[in-house]
Amino acid sequence: MGEPTVRRRRLGSELRRLREAAGLTLEEVEARNPALKLSKVSRIETARLGIKAPDLDALLALYGLDEGDEGEAVRAKRTVLHRLARDGARRGWWQTYREIISPAYADLISLEDDAASMRTYQSLLIPGLLQTAAYARATISAINMTSPAERVTGLVEVRRARQAVLSRPSPLEVWAIIHEAALRPQLADAPGVMKEQLQRLLDLMELPHVTIQILPLHTPPHPGLTGPFTSLRFPGTADLDVVLVEHLTSALYFEDPGEVAIYGSAFEHLRAAALPLDTSADLIAKLKDTL
User: Fold this and answer.
1) What is the pLDDT of residue 125?
2) What letter would DSSP give residue 254?
3) Would you say residue 22 lies in a domain?
């Protein structure tokens, strides 16, 4: 069996959380509805098995999210969970590149594809969704070190294809806080790359769904000192928000609501410490003009 999709893992994780919140064991679920066998529900929760709409409705009824409930929050939660169930096995365009991208990276692309909004803090790099092709190539080559040119080219194509979420009919809403240090790398072999990248940021700031703030070099100690992070929110409910923390060879996803809330608070602190929007744009333009 192939690697379960991130949609299926998110659905399984949320169903387990709902069951535990309802105070039910797997044995009790089966006792209340014999069609929901313990082994079956366990495999659904661990993302080893998908789920059909009737079984999902039956589980949600046991967990207190009845179809007839008129509460807006319950309706939104049911809609999100049914979408995850329906699309759980769907593979996106990024599967074409499965030979060169890691499962964690595929998960990120899938999450971006489903998300309504993104909040990201970056300390040394321009966020991937905001990069030019030339900047992407320069940074991907540096990070991947010994990768052959064809793999780098493929990764650049993936990064550019990801940016389609900014121009879809209901575009991803992005709020990026970028440390000033990320605006100042010296690309000696391609001096025009950084200038083009800074202009790209200025162009994107004109879009109503893209917000960019710069965190100045001399900012006092702040939560971003631990490193960059990205949080993604999905339509209808905050219960399934996800936070991504990337490392050189791996990535961690945080889905626990308590942990997600901590990163949300960190982002608010960073947003308060960053320059206002107009001042951020002025700084980007000033740095571009010095190149």
Assistant:
1) 94
2) E
3) yes
pLDDT per position as a tens digit, 89-134: 666 788 888 889 888 888 888 889 888 999 999 999 999 999 999 9
CATH number of the structural domain spanning residue 221: 3.30.870.10
Sign of dihedral through CA atoms 115, 118, 122, 125? Answer: positive
Strand partners, 234: 237
pLDDT reported for residue 239? 67
Domain that holds residue 68: 6-86
Consecutive H or E run containing 104 = helix 103-114
- Do 135 and 170 form a contact (C-beta atoms < 8 A)? no
| Dist. CA 188–CA 261, nearest whole Å | 41
Indicate if 42 and 120 belong to the same structural domain: no
What does the DSSP assignment read for 126-179?
Answer: --GGG--HHHHHHHHHHHHTT--HHHHHHHHHHHHHHGGGGTSSSPPEEEEEEE
pTM higher than 0.70: yes
Closest CA to 89 of 7, 163, 34: 7
Are residue 170 and residue 75 in the same domain, yes or no? no
Domain of 69, CATH number, reads 1.10.260
Q: What is the distance between the alpha carbons of residues 150 and 185, in angstroms, rounded to a whole number?
A: 25
252-275 mean pLDDT: 93
Handedness of CA 10, 237, 222, 182 (dihedral sign): positive
Q: What is the pLDDT of residue 91?
A: 67
Q: Which of 34, 69, 86 is the last residue of a domain?
A: 86
Distance in angstroms (rounded) separating the CA atoms of residues 33 and 206: 54
Cα torsion 252, 253, 256, 258 to 10°: value is 70
User: What's the rounded Cα separation, in Å, for the pair 34 and 53?
Assistant: 17
Question: Do 171 and 211 lie in a common domain?
Answer: yes
